[in-house]
Each structure stands twice: as structure tokens, then as C-alpha cells.
Design brief:
The complex is a heterodimer. By secondary structure, chain A is α/β, with parallel strands linked by helices. Chain A has helices at 34-42, 52-73, 90-93, 130-139, 151-156, 166-186, 198-201, 206-217, 289-299, 321-343; strands spanning 23-24, 96-101, 105-108, 111-113, 116-124, 146-149, 159-160, 191-195, 225-230, 249-252, 273-277, 308-311. Chain A has one domain: TIM Barrel. In chain A, strand 3 and strand 4 form a beta hairpin. Chain A is globular and about 60 Å long. In chain B, 54% of the residues are buried. Chain B has helices at 16-26, 40-60, 78-81, 115-126, 130-133, 141-147, 156-172, 186-189, 194-198, 200-208, 226-232, 249-259, 280-293, 315-328, and strands spanning 3-6, 65-66, 86-93, 100-106, 134-139, 149-150, 179-183, 214-218, 239-243, 264-270, 301-306. Chain B has an 8-stranded parallel beta sheet with strand order 1-11-10-9-8-7-5-2. A 3-stranded mixed beta sheet of chain B has the order 3-4-6, covered by helices on one side. Chain B has a single domain (3-336), classed as TIM Barrel (Alpha-Beta Barrel), CATH 3.20.20. The chains are: A alpha/beta, B alpha/beta. Chain A: This is Methionine synthase. Chain A: Its cofactor is Zn(2+). Chain A: Keywords: Metal-binding, Zinc.
């Protein structure tokens, strides 16, 4: 069962221009400023005077810049672009007891991943993201969303040396994520997103992800919005099972596949709120506002406007920064236009998208 | 007395400096990957690292040494993705792993390529007594058929036959080698249908008959189903290879009990996909477990290696596993293995 919570109202801006409100957000990562990539390398250069303290300052600066960039796009909820994180598994593995790094392994061609090993029981030492959240929350004028790599992905994208089964490792990690979410909530976080890209490659494990989510939300107040992000895959293999996940919102990459899979979610009825990807992160062309509006209407086939969240397909970190900005600005503009059309009764909720013929 | 031969499946991890040097020289995108026509600088870098991984296998105490297959950007699909009449297209998932390769779309006749033979020629010069220790590595005909897309032959049976003939032509051009390992993970992951399984042994024989070396058909990612195993047993090869790390190894034993096996066998005893380094004692126990379960047969020879290709591993753990395998074969003192 989904959490019986209507916790999206807290993100409704007081000066929102329309009666309808489609919550706009980002998945998390964002194009890093080029100088940040440079200084990330510089700190490892023994000949450079650039030290860890300078890097901390650079990360703070970058977090300010990207948070502000999200606000300038007009997004209702913002992230710091995950500018402090190097990679979605490595960042957490460096902070979780029990992980070790042995060196890069091949993903494809010359693309490598510093795949960690779980060589001992996993444990929680100190908060992973609380400092990051507090900093962003202080500099942001909009509510801040906190993306966390989920236990299924943290477990699957590592070598398991220590646990009898992958499942046991994942549940162990889920307890740690639960602890982290508690800390974030204590620090004031109201919007948490669990990222589980690994589910796309092994959809038969949807029950393990569900059990892990049960552990993650255990004891978490229902006023806290908890989302789940899943990227491209064969969604028919995780639907309708994901309706049982204890989350408020499920964020899906669908634009990249031209919404060919959208009908998967129309029967049976979609239970959580839908966070719909409406711009393609694998395409460096900024979609025009009208195209994005048509994409948004695809979401209305699945959920009514009051349960629709608008987001990009996935993280934007691989796009050129001006393209990332253009996509977000157009996404927000398209969303506000769709809201106005809904206010004016110009969209038929029963048939929001014209049929091909 | 059973001879224990310490070896590897080939497709080794690139040394870490090679990862950065070659990505710098070639690039990261799919059109930057190996085409078989690389220039001098890239070829020179590969030559240097080929020497390094051959030295590493020899110094670890292996009885058979592979070229390393460091150029195989597309893993087992490499012999096709470097072929002139093949278009390496979109990136597709490599079996049930978080790894990807370029889909080889065959758009013309699969005539002779010579890419793998050229690699082996270079390796033969680096290996001590290549006729007695060099192990050639290729995908088996079924796995290569399974990994490829046909845009030319138009008929699956014809395409399967053409792939077997293509591999046979490549083997014919190989320099002297002691062993030829044919990788056949697709027999487990996507077992052949009725038509294909009927022609499986013929296809393997087409390739195997082109060499005087001992031919091993190695299978992994689990156990073969009964029908596939029974047909594979008809192939005229020295040994079949089994994944003894996989959870369903009892099914492998059941196949062997039911249909017998060759006089030699290849045993995947160390996990090629996990960094936990098994001790030489653990590996020895796995070999003994296998022998104990097949009491009716004393094997002439047992090849010992990782179950899968080891490119999934970081280099330090791969090195430790090679040493443990050599120790399990009795080639080095287990006490000296640092793992």
C-alpha cells in the first residue's frame, strides 16, 4: 500500500499563479560547472597548492550556484545538483562502514566504475547527507529535495563478499538508509527521493525493493514526502507491483521511450503520485515548450493533475549546462501553461492526449 | 593420475594504467571502440599491456597462458565487431550483467578476418614455448550467433552455419597453440531451440576440426539444461567446461551422471564476478568435491580457472585469484599465495 498521505501541499508556493498545481522538481544530478571538475582533479595533484579546504569552498560555491540556477528556472523544489557527489554508488560507499575500493572495473568500452566491495557487515558511522542538506536548505528559498541512492542499487552495484545473499545485504543497507532519512528529517528535510536505477536491469527483484522500502520508511512521519526514482527499463515487469510500494510518489523515465510504455500504468489504477519525466536527458536538444506540454498531458492519462509531478527523465549531469538549464526552464514554462489550460477547462482530463488518428 | 592444469578463461581486466591511457587515446564513445584498424600509437599501447598480462599469467604460475583479449572492447562479440562486413551498432546488455557491448549487425558475408590470429601471432612470440602453453580463446559458434544480429543471411540456420565457418577460418590462421577455449555462456543463458541444438555439435566440430590443439568448450553463468548438454556431448572436443561457482552446480552433476562427460573437464572454481578471493584450499576442495561426485571416472586432465571471464574484477583481486588457482593446481606453494 502506498502511504496514505497528501504531503504535496507543503510545496505549493504562496504566489503560485494558477489554481491547478503540478509540482515541478528535478531528479537530482545536474551539469557541474566546468571549473568544479577541474578543481576536483586539482586537489589530487601533489604539485598543486589547491587543498581540501579549497575544495570544500568550491563545492559550497557550486552548490549555491546550481541551487540558484534551479530557482531561476522556476522549479518548485530544488536540489544542489549533487555537485558534491562524484558518483551515485561511490559517494555512499565511501561513507558506509563495510565497503572497500579495489580499483575500477569495466562497464562498457572504456567506461569504468570504481565498483566497491562489501567486505564486512555494513554499518552507519556518521551522517551521509545532512551537511549537504543543511547547506542547500540555508541558501535555498524553495523547498529542497534530497536524492539518496537506494539500498537495492547500493547492494547490486557492489561485490558482495560478506553476506550470504544479495538480499540480506540489501536489507542491511535499507536499515542504514532509514537511519539517514531519520537524520535528514530531524534536520528539516521534507522531500526524500530514493534512487533505484538497478531495478531497471533486474526487474524480477521488485519484491526485494518493496521490502527494502518498507524498512526505509519505517518510523518516518507521513508529512515527509518519500519518492522513488526508477530509470529506463521494461516497466511491465514491475507494474502493478510497484503500487504496493510504501512511497508517496514514483518518478519514471518515459520521455526517452516516447511514452510507448505509458499505457502500462493505466490498468490497474496507478496508486502513488506519478512524477513524470517530460524531457529526455539523453538528447542534447532543448525540447520546445509545446512539445513538453504534450508530454505532460501523457501523465494525465495515468493520474489526475493533483497527483502529477513534473520532472526530467533522469539526472541532467551529462548534458551541457546551458542545455540542462534550457530544458528545466522550458519544463517549468510548459507546466505553468498546462496548469492555466486546466484552469480554463481547455484540457479534457478523460482524454488529455489526442489519438493518432 | 589426473593432471591439473592451471589456466584462465581469457578476457582479462585491463591493467589500470591501460584503462586511462587507452581511453585517452581512443575516447569513451561507442564509435571510439576497437574497429580492427587502429593506428600505430594505439596498437603500441596494446602491445605493451599484452606483454604485461602475459608476464603476469606466467609469473602467477599458470600452465596455459592467453593473449589476454585486452582489445576485446565488446567482449565475446569482438571477432564480429572488428569484421569489415559487420556494423557495430547500438549498445546492448551483455548477458545478465551491468555490462554492455555493441550489437554486431552482420551486413555482408562473414569472410576471413584474421584479427584474432594477428593478436595470437604477437602473443606467441611473448609466451615461453607457445606450442606447449599458448591458449587461444574464441566465442563458441552458438554464443557468437546469439550475441549477433543477422542483417544479411536472412535465415537463422544459414547464419549459424556461417558463424561456425567464419570461426573455423579464423582458427585455421592461428599460430601453434596448445589449447583452444571456446566460450559458450549463451548455451546457459539463452539455450538453443530445437533446430539449433540439433546442429550444435556439428557447429562446434566445424570450428574444433581446424586445430590440432586440445579444444575446451567452456560454459558458465549456471548449468546447461539436459537437452543442450546431451547434444553438446556429441561434439568431438577434449573437454567441456562447467561453472562450479554457480548455485545450480548440482544440475551440472546430474547432467554428467546422466550423459557422461569427456575424459577431461574444465572447472570454473574461482568466482570471476566477485572480489572475495578464495583460498587455494577452498579451490582444491571444490575440485575434490567434483571428483568425489563423479566416482566412476578418473579424468585425464582437469583445467582449473575462474568460472566466467575475469574482466569483471579489479586487477588486484584478479591477480590474487590467478595465484590461488595456480596453487590449487599444485604449481606454487599455497603458503606463498598472499591472498
Amino acid at each position: 500500500m502506498s502511504r496514505p498521505a497528501d504531503n504535496r501541499a507543503q510545496f505549493h508556493p504562496d504566489d503560485h499563479p494558477n489554481d491547478h498545481f503540478l509540482l515541478t522538481t528535478v531528479v537530482g544530478s545536474y551539469a557541474k560547472p566546468k571549473w568544479l571538475n577541474r578543481v576536483d582533479d586539482l586537489v589530487d595533484d601533489p604539485d598543486s597548492k589547491f587543498d581540501e579546504e579549497n575544495l570544500q569552498e568550491a563545492h559550497d560555491d557550486a552548490a549555491r550556484v546550481i541551487t540558484n540556477e534551479h530557482e531561476r528556472c522556476g522549479l518548485d523544489t530544488v536540489v544542489d545538483g549533487e555537485v558534491r557527489r562524484n558518483e551515485m554508488v561511490e559517494f555512499f560507499a565511501e561513507r558506509i562502514e563495510g565497503y572497500e575500493f579495489n580499483g575500477p572495473v569495466k562497464v562498457w568500452g572504456h567506461n569504468y566504475f570504481d565498483k566497491p566491495s562489501v567486505s564486512a557487515e555494513v554499518g552507519y558511522d556518521e551522517p551521509w547527507l545532512v551537511d549537504e542538506f543543511e547547506f542547500t536548505n540555508n541558501v535555498a528559498s524553495k523547498p529542497v529535495k534530497v536524492p539518496i541512492t537506494g539500498p537495492y542499487t547500493l547492494g547490486c552495484w557492489a561485490f558482495n563478499e560478506a553476506y550470504d545473499s544479495q538480499e540480506e545485504l540489501i536489507y542491511g543497507l535499507a536499515e542504514l538508509v532509514n537511519t539517514e532519512v531519520e537524520q535528514l528529517v530531524d534536520a528539516g528535510a521534507r522531500y526524500i527521493q530514493i534512487d533505484e536505477p538497478a531495478l531497471a536491469t533486474t526487474p524480477d527483484d521488485h519484491a526485494i525493493v518493496g521490502e527494502a522500502l518498507d524498512r526505509i520508511v519505517s518510523g518516518i512521519d507521513e508529512d515527509v514526502r518519500v519518492g522513488l526514482h526508477v530509470c529506463y527499463g521494461d516497466y511491465s515487469r514491475i507494474y502493478p507491483e510497484l503500487n504496493d510500494y510504501p512511497v508517496d510518489e514514483v518518478d519514471l523515465e518515459l520521455c526517452n521511450g516516447n511514452y510507448e510504455q505509458i499505457d502500462v500504468f493505466t490498468d490497474p489504477e496507478f496508486v502513488p503520485d506519478l512524477a513524470l519525466g517530460v524531457v529526455d536527458v539523453h538528447n542534447a536538444e532543448v525540447e520546445p515548450v509545446d512539445e513538453i506540454k504534450a508530454n505532460i498531458k501523457q501523465g494525465l492519462k495515468v493520474v489526475p493533475p493533483e497527483r502529477l509531478t513534473i520532472s526530467p527523465d533522469c539526472g541532467l549531469k551529462l548534458l551541457p549546462r546551458d542545455v540542462a538549464y534550457g530544458k528545466m526552464a522550458n519544463m517549468v514554462e510548459a507546466t505553468r501553461q498546462v496548469e492555466a489550460e486546466l484552469d480554463n477547462g481547455e484540457i479534457d482530463i478523460e482524454a488529455p492526449v489526442p489519438t493518432a488518428d | 593420475m589426473t593432471e591439473r592444469v592451471a589456466t584462465t578463461t581469457g578476457l582479462l581486466p585491463l591493467p589500470d594504467p591501460a584503462k586511462s591511457e587507452l581511453s585517452g587515446l581512443k575516447g569513451y564513445q561507442k564509435h571510439d571502440l576497437i574497429s580492427g584498424t587502429e593506428g600505430e600509437e594505439i596498437a603500441g599501447a596494446y602491445a605493451e599491456y599484452r606483454r604485461e598480462v602475459i608476464d603476469e599469467q606466467q609469473s602467477a604460475g599458470l600452465d596455459r597462458v592467453t593473449e589476454g583479449q585486452l582489445r576485446w572492447d565488446d567482449m565475446l562479440a569482438h571477432p564480429l565487431t572488428t569484421h569489415d562486413n559487420v556494423d557495430p551498432n547500438g549498445i546492448v546488455r551483455y548477458y545478465d550483467n551491468n555490462n554492455f557491448y555493441r550489437d554486431p549487425q552482420v551486413r555482408g558475408e562473414l569472410d576471413f578476418s584474421g584479427d584474432v590470429a594477428d593478436e595470437l601471432d604477437t602473443a606467441a612470440k611473448l609466451v615461453d614455448d607457445s606450442a606447449d602453453s599458448l591458449q587461444a580463446v574464441l566465442p563458441g559458434p552458438y554464443s557468437l550467433f546469439d550475441l549477433a544480429s543477422d542483417e544479411h543471411y536472412g535465415d537463422d540456420s544459414e547464419f549459424f552455419g556461417a558463424i561456425a565457418e567464419f570461426l573455423a577460418g579464423e582458427v585455421e590462421a592461428f599460430p601453434d597453440h596448445k589449447t583452444l577455449t571456446l566460450h559458450e555462456p549463451s548455451l546457459v543463458e539463452n539455450p538453443p531451440n530445437e533446430d539449433r541444438v540439433e546442429r550444435l555439435a556439428d557447429a562446434v566440430d566445424t570450428v574444433a576440426s581446424e586445430t590440432d590443439a586440445d579444444v575446451v568448450v567452456h560454459t558458465y553463468f549456471g548449468a546447461l539444461d539436459e537437452t543442450t548438454y546431451a547434444h553438446l556431448m556429441d561434439a568431438d572436443v577434449e573437454a567441456l567446461g562447467f561453472d562450479l561457482v554457480a548455485g545450480d552446480r548440482e544440475e551440472t552433476l546430474s547432467n554428467i551422471t546422466e550423459f557422461g562427460t569427456k575424459d577431461a573437464a574444465a572447472l570454473g572454481i574461482a568466482d570471476g564476478q566477485n572480489t572475495l578471493v578464495e583460498s587455494a584450499d577452498t579451490l582444491t576442495e571444490r575440485v575434490e568435491w567434483f571428483e568425489d561426485q563423479i566416482p566412476v571416472q578418473e579424468f585425464d586432465r582437469l583445467y582449473l580457472s575462474t568460472n566466467t571471464e575475469p574482466f569483471y574484477l579489479p586487477v588486484n583481486k584478479h591477480r590474487a585469484k590467478l595465484e590461488a588457482i595456480a596453487a590449487a593446481a599444485g604449481n606454487v606453494d599455497a603458503e606463498e599465495v598472499t591472498a
